[in-house]
Amino acid sequence: MAKILKKERLSENTVKMVLEAPLIAEKRKAGQFVVLRINEQGERIPLTIANADKDAGTITIIFMEVGKTTSLLGTLKEGDNIMDLAGPLGNPTHIEKLGTVVCVGGGVGIAPMYPITEAMKKAGNRVITIIGAKNKDSLIMEEEMKSVSDEFLICTDDGSYGTKGFVTQVLEDVIKRGEKIDVVVAIGPVVMMKAVSKVTRPHNIKTIVSLNSIMVDATGMCGGCRVSIGGVSKFACVEGPEFDGHEVDFDELMTRQSAYGKQEHESMQCFLRDKK
Amino acid sequence: MEVKDRMKIPRQKMPEQDPKARGKNFDEVPYGYDENTAVTEAQRCLKCKKPPCVEGCPVEIDIPGFIVCIENKDFDGAIRKIKETNGLPAVCGRVCPQEDQCEVRCVVGKKGDPVAIGRLERFAADYERNKGNVFIPEIPKSTGKRIAVVGSGPAGLTAAGDLRLMGHDVTVMEALHKEGGVLVYGIPEFRLPKAIVKAEVDYLGKLGVKFISNYIVGKTRTVDELLEEYDAVFLGTGAGLPLFLNIPGENLIGVYSANEYLTRSNLMKAYLFPEYDTPIVRGKNVAVFGGGNVAMDSARTALRLGADNSYIIYRRSRVEMPARNEEIHHAEEEGINFQLLTNPIRFIGDDKGRVKGVECLRMELGEPDDSGRKRPVPIKGSEFVIEIDTAVVAIGNSPNPLVPATTPGLDTSKRGTIIADEETGLTSREGVFAGGDIVTGAATVILAMGAGKKAARAINEYVMKK
């Protein structure tokens, strides 16, 4: 059981929660995730750890309400309990002093990008951060990201805040400046990570992406999270979640993520009906 | 009763759900013996002075001892006798391959059918559980020793129960949210009801065994960290990394590992979707690849999820199938379509990335291979396509690497199994013991239990000397 200590709505459908999880808080490193199950009927879903406080024994999760489970999670209040919480899972991000690191976060992907950006900064890198969202209202964690960046760039799809356009355009501008970039780390929607990898490939810039494929146990047991990396099947839960963006078969990942579209819709309809 | 009279009694049938009806529900297939049938079956036992059946039992149950109790209608006595050595009798009575272990050695079986030892074990366990008054043996005075058991599958539960009965303080750590390991995620409800696993786990709880779920050893805490708190660690983490066929199209939507398919259905209750949130593809034409018990479980699950055609595709013949005869027989009765001597070569997808067919080759049997079984050889030009919308790969598992990868100095084999002494379970690390599938590779429930038992003895010796 994990108690919800704090809940905050960051945008219309993005929620931040601070959970009581001392064992996980003590262990977690940037890039890792947890698996949770809300109640007896619930499914197990992976969520990245956005932050943790070892002393307070808490972790922070930030999620977008998209399906039944995340929507139900969004209805829980401070003081409520999440039935099952396990972690930290996955391999931590490889952090070291590399030189200049560009951290690209898109949408709710900014949340897992935060601890990585923070760790990259702490390791002594020059950190250029690019965050993007649909519009000003859905942009999250601006202050936090800014505080751990040497250079901070914002864009929105509709131009309501920062540069108008996608993170890839901003990234391209940074590359064109001619600055030596040692690594790009990108987390966001799969289509964004695919586009970022496409931008960096011709420049031979190492690009790390974090893949959120469908998982059940998240300990290597089910194999549901398999992704093709350089033509070889890998399990995102135990061999990832981070991989070389230039090796990932993003199209296959997008297809696999759509596997349960019909059931997810049905489940959501039941949820909305029950809510009434 | 005279021996010749005993020999005249036929092996008692166990009533079962009608094959047609059961293909549409997840209720348990066999109903079990009633008291009279159990007593009659017990009368068939010759109570051999040197019972060969016991030698075949990895957990050393006093088989004639408990059967004579049943014959005398002392059912409480029967279950107590079993529980002297076996903490999971209701599970073993259902899923043990008795035909290859105790029953194969039964003297009565030399001239006819062996005594139905497994069914009698199941009867005794069910009798006690249904009565609701479970006998709790006295626990000896605390030794003050603390032992961590990693994994709550058959090996871990057995080791935990035995260690507790020796007076140790035992904590079982489970990575999933529910205890039981393969008994809850792998074996379907119709073969092993989850309520039974729960009852047996609860029994260990009543003995004083502590359980922590959602605790991933290797991630939440490492083995080295456990050793700071505990006097010994037992690793029973199982063989939980699914093997795939490595043929084109294997990542299409609708292609599952048996682990995923069964975990969704069993542990997460996807068969009750949308009442339960976990989805599963309810295929109309489902192909399961493999010939073991897991393949049978998957094919029969597919049928119950509404498949019109549920195929078993196996590259050898029925004779070589590793599944229990009883399971193959149940599958056949339910109408599973067996495509024997058939090997898949590629999956075919539609424009949405969903599997729509599998291309196969017919095989014939050639000379024996390293395993001693006849090697399947492809028949040239025999390619054909089976239309499917779901595929389940059930060709086995390799050991889960989470613990070996995070435990320095823990020796593993090329196959990834932990190297442990067969008699004691001792690994290359002091105070760390291992048993079950993580040591042997995928095997049976009862062998894992046997390993848990041996390790418990060795751990006891180790911690008491410490």
Automatic annotation (TrEMBL), chain A:
Keyword Iron: yes
Source organism, top-level taxon: Bacteria
Key words, A-Z: 2Fe-2S, Iron, Iron-sulfur, Metal-binding
All copies of domain FAD-binding FR-type, residue ranges: 1-95
One GO biological process term: pyrimidine nucleotide biosynthetic process
PROSITE patterns per record: FAD_FR
GO molecular function terms listed in the Swiss-Prot or TrEMBL record: 2 iron, 2 sulfur cluster binding; flavin adenine dinucleotide binding; metal ion binding; oxidoreductase activity
Annotated binding of [2Fe-2S] cluster, by residue: C222, C225, C237
Cofactor: [2Fe-2S] cluster
Pfam families registered for this protein in UniProt: DHODB_Fe-S_bind (PF10418), NAD_binding_1 (PF00175)
Coiled-coil intervals: none
Cofactor remark from the record: Binds 1 [2Fe-2S] cluster per subunit.
NCBIfam families: PRK06222.1 (NF004862)
Full protein name: Sulfide/dihydroorotate dehydrogenase-like FAD/NAD-binding protein
Organism in which the protein naturally occurs: Candidatus Zymogenus saltonus
UniProtKB/TrEMBL annotation, chain B:
Keyword terms, alphabetized: Oxidoreductase
Domain of life: Bacteria
Start and end residues of each FAD/NAD(P)-binding domain: 146-452
Gene3D superfamilies, per the entry: Alpha-helical ferredoxin, FAD/NAD(P)-binding domain
Enzyme class: oxidoreductase
Region of interest: Disordered: 1-27
Ranges of residues in domain Dihydroprymidine dehydrogenase: 23-132
Gene Ontology MF term list: glutamate synthase (NADPH) activity; iron-sulfur cluster binding
InterPro entries xref list: DPD_II (IPR028261), FAD/NAD-bd_sf (IPR036188), FAD/NAD-binding_dom (IPR023753), Helical_ferredxn (IPR009051), SudA-like (IPR006004)
E.C. code: 1.4.1.13
NCBIfam families, alphabetized: gltA
Record's protein name: NADPH-dependent glutamate synthase
Species name: Candidatus Zymogenus saltonus
